[in-house]
Amino acid sequence: MQTDVARRRLRELILDGAYPPGARLTEMEVAAALDMSRTPVREALRALAADGLVRPSGRGVVVVALEQGDLDEAYQVRAALEALTAELAATRQREGRIAPADLAALREIAIDTATATAEGRLA
To answer: What's the whole-number mean pLDDT along residues 16-28?
Structure first.
């Protein structure tokens, strides 16, 4: 669905810093940047506002600055999920229930996540 694609891409751009805190975004600008129509972008912006990543401001939205406490909580949740994922993968590997390609994919995700963390981004 176009709205899901727009939401995911816009979320990535915000979290990667392409749209920094305080940046003002309009439907037209984002639609042009994502090469999409305005309708899925409008819905994506509404969803991101509900998520707390942007806030409505006049004829567009403004990217919010995440508070340090919010970032700390996000990293704690991510760390817990990573630990659980590693535990499940290890169990499945011992039991022969994980394909080598899937294990390699998990390693790549772990590397990407570690890189994002080192760069101060939320992966």
So the answer is: 93
